[in-house]
Write the structure tokens for this entry.
Amino acid sequence: MDDEVLNYGIRKFLKKVGITAQMKIEESVRDAVREGRLDDVESLTARMVLTVGGVDLEIGIDGDIPLTWKQQDQAPRNNPGAKGKDDERQ
């Protein structure tokens, strides 16, 4: 096994997962907002299950997806990468 090939393959797969998941989540949230199903909702709970065949790996990853900025965490609209108070500071 070549560790560099493994690392590259994992990164390529995770990039595909991340891009696809983000597009689908955004589309679903916009549809729900348009249909009035997310009134008064500040965040959504999310769970992703990753399975990898051949090595019997199954892992669940849980998190929250905020839909609004809390006052204390508000980042400037022109800088979506700005860190909130809970993010690591250097």
